[in-house]
Specification:
Helix content is about 45%, strand content about 10%. It is elongated. The termini are far apart. It contains nine helices and seven strands; from the N terminus they run H-H-H-H-E-E-H-E-H-E-H-E-H-E-H-E. The strands form two sheets. A five-stranded mixed beta sheet has the order 4-3-5-6-7. Strands 1-2 form a two-stranded antiparallel sheet. It folds into two domains: about 5-45, Helicase, Ruva Protein, domain 3 (Orthogonal Bundle); about 85-200, Dna Topoisomerase Vi A Subunit, Chain: A, domain 2 (3-Layer(aba) Sandwich). The chain is an alpha/beta fold and about 200 residues long. It binds zinc ion. Zinc ion (ZN) binds next to helix 5. The site of zinc ion has 8 residues, from helix 5.
């Protein structure tokens, strides 16, 4: 018989991706038997997660909320050493992180948040294309790297971007197929990802 509190914690933890009930129960036991500070720190950080972190107003990456500032802007967007003329378009924040791990991207990013998916009923109007176009024009971006995953939806999104961004007159490239087809950028190792970025081809 489990205590109601343990049960509740196991249920909550097992909602996380990749965590089943067994793993969740192990986490609860670990937190109970180890230094109490770990559980307290974890709880405190989780409690303020949504207040202190927001999507970056410029690119959609994770950004820290600065008290007194109306919009959250991420560290990449604030970094003046980045090439402001080069923009890498990704589907999700996970993909941005996978590319950042290569250390090969000198420009900044734009996170779409979702991919074009006719099967799931996600059409062009569901993507933030007007915001993307405004950013390209306002910042004088000259090269766009499309780094959507090599899946059916990722390819469809790349083609849509090619069409929609054509009037902006920017150089457009697509990351090379170093990443396995249908694969997730998130799981590509930094070397493969770095090669895919270096070997990008005209879209
Ligand atoms: Zn940003």
């Amino acid at each position: 018989m489990q205590s109601p509190k343990v049960k509740k914690l196991v249920t909550l933890l097992s909602r996380l991706p990749g965590v089943g009930e067994k793993t969740a129960a192990r986490y609860v036991l670990y937190l109970l038997t180890t230094d109490a500070e770990i559980a307290r720190d974890l709880g405190a950080e989780l409690a303020t997660l949504h207040e202190e972190l927001r999507p970056c107003a410029r690119c959609g990456n994770i950004a820290e909320v600065v008290p007194g500032e109306p919009a959250a802007v991420c560290t990449i967007c604030r970094d003046d050493r980045r090439d402001g003329k080069l923009l890498c378009i990704v589907g999700r924040v996970h993909d941005l992180q996978a590319i950042e791990r290569t250390g090969a991207m000198r420009g900044r990013y734009f996170v779409l948040g979702r991919l074009l998916s006719p099967l799931e009923g996600i059409g062009p109007e569901d993507l933030p294309l007007p915001r993307l176009l405004t950013r390209i024009r306002d910042e004088g971006i000259t090269e766009v790297i499309v780094a959507t995953p090599p899946s059916v939806d990722g390819e469809a999104t790349a083609l849509l971007l090619k069409r929609e961004l054509a009037p902006a007159g920017v150089k457009m490239t697509r990351i090379a197929s170093g990443v396995p087809h249908g694969g997730d950028l998130e799981y590509a190792d930094p070397i493969t990802m770095g090669r895919a970025l270096a070997g990008r081809q005209t879209l």
